[in-house]
Amino acid sequence: MTKTDSVQRLPLVDLDWWQSNPGERDALFASLRADNPRPFVPLGTGPDGVVKGFWALTQHEDVVAVSRRPEDFGSGDGTQIFDQPQKLREYRGSIIDMDNPEHSRLRRIVSRGFTSRNLGALRGEVENTVLEILDQMPKSGECDFVSEFAAVLPLRIICELLGIPREHEAFLLEATNVILGASDAEYIPDQSAHGIGLAVTSASEELIRLLSGLAEARIENPEDDLISQLVAAKEDENLTPGEMARFFILLVGAGNETTRNVITHGLLTLTLFPDQRDKWLSDYEAHSRTAIEELLRWASPVVHMRRTVTRDGVMLGDQEFSKGDKVVMWYGSANRDESVFEDPFTFDIERDPNPHLAFGAPGPHFCLGAHLARLELDVAFRELFRRFPDIKAVGEPDRLRSNFLNGIKHLQATYTHTEAS
Ligand code: HEM
User: Widest CA span of the chain, in angstroms?
Assistant: First the structure.
C-alpha cells in the first residue's frame, strides 16, 4: 500500500468532527477496519514537495504490534499527531515522549512511586477523598457532575500522592484544563496558533515554577511524599527538580484528565444502559472488576498516540514503512475491533476477557498509573452509588473540542441528596 493508493479525505484531525456525533465516528472507524485499516491521512505538502501526514492504525492487532516494538516505532519525536514546537517540547519533555536509554532510566525512578505497596497504602486515602467530595456535593440534588465530582477526585489524589498543598488545587485544575483542552475556546478563548501557544506556555511555566520550588524544598527537607521519593530518596538516581516538574506536567495530564473522563463517561453510560447499572448495583463487588474494564473500553479517554518509524524497511503486516513515517494508533477504534470483541458496540459489564487498550497496549510506555486509575474508579463508583443510589446524568454531555482526549467538559446530574449515615 502506498501513500497515494491509500489517500482518503478523512476527518481524523477535524476538531469539530470529534466534538460532534460519536456514532458517526464509530461508523467511520468500523468501515476503515473492514476495508482500509491503515489509511494514509495527508496533512499538506512540505517545502521539499513531499506529502506530509500519517498512517492511521485502526485495528487492535496493529496497535499491539506497534506498542511492543519501540526499536522500530519510536516515541522520541513526539506522541501527538502534530509536532510540538521546540519550546513546548522542553516543558513537556517527559517519559511519554522518550526512547531508551533515557526512557528506561526515568521510568525506573518514577516507578518507585507506583509500586503495589505504595498503592495499597493509598486505598484508604482514596476512600477518604471520595467521601469528602461526596459530602460537599450540592444539597439541591443537581450539579455539574464534572466540576463537582469527576474533575476533583483524580486531581486531589495526585496532589495528596505528591504532597502538593491543597491551596494549589484550583490553579492546577485551571492550568491542566488549558494544557489539555487547548483546542477548546472555553479554556483558551483566543484560538489562533499564537493565542494557544501563549496560553499553554504560560500555564506550563507556572506549573514548572510551582513544582521546581516544591522539589527544591524537598531536597533540603524530605517529607513522606512522592516528590521526596523521586528527588531525594537515593544517592545516585533521583530526578532533578526540572525533570520532576516535567514529569508532573505529564502526570496531571495523563493521570487527571483521563480518569476524570472515565468517571464522567461512566455516569453517562450507566444512565443510558439502566439494565447494566441495575445488574452492577445488585452486587457491586461481584461485578466491579469487569464493569470497570468495560467502562475503560467504552470511554477510551485517550483517543490516540503516535509513533515515528525509526528506519527504512520496517514492516507491519505486509506493509513496508520508511524512516520518519508517522503512525497513529486510534485506541477507540482498536477497542471496538470486531475481530477481538464480540458485539463490540454492546456495553456489557460482564465482558470477560476484555483485552481493551485504553491504557495503551503492553510495551515500555504502558500506562504507569493503570493500577491507581482502577483503584480510583472502583472506590469512586462504589461510594457514589452508596451515597446517591439514584444519581443519573440528565441532558446532553458538553463535549471537549479535541482529537486527543475523549473528554466531557460538563454533564448535568440529578440525585436525591442525603447526608452521610
Ligand atoms: C483511566 C485513566 C487512564 C488512562 C485511560 C490512561 C491512558 C494512558 C495511555 C493511553 C498512555 C500511553 C501508552 C502508550 O503510549 O503506549 C498512558 C501513559 C502514561 N500514563 Fe496513563 N492513563 C490513565 C491514568 C493514569 C494515572 C492515574 C497516572 C498517574 C497518576 C498515569 C500516568 C501515566 C504515565 C506516567 C504515562 C507514561 C508512561 C511512559 O511513557 O512510560 N496515567 N496512559
Answer: 69
3-class secondary structure, 314: strand
Residues lining ligand 1, CB < 6 A?
67, 95-96, 107, 158, 250-251, 254-255, 258-259, 262, 301-302, 305, 358-360, 363, 365-369, 372-373
Q: Where along the chain do its domains lie?
A: 3-414
- Indicate the pLDDT class of residue 146, thresholds 50, 70 and 90: very high
Domain spanning 3-414: which CATH class is it, in words? mainly alpha
Which pLDDT band holds residue 379 (cuts at 50, 70, 90)? very high
Q: Which amino acid is at 296?
A: L
Q: Report which listed range, 7-16, 117-126, 398-407, is most confident.
A: 398-407
Q: Whose CA is nearest to atom 40 of ligand 1?
A: 96
Residue whose CA is closest, atom 7 of ligand 1? 359
CA angle centred on 350, ends 390 and 152, rounded to 5°: 45
Residue 116 has pLDDT above 90, yes or no: no
- Distance, CA 153 to ligand 1 centroid (Å)? 17
Q: Whose CA is nearest to atom 2 of ligand 1?
A: 259
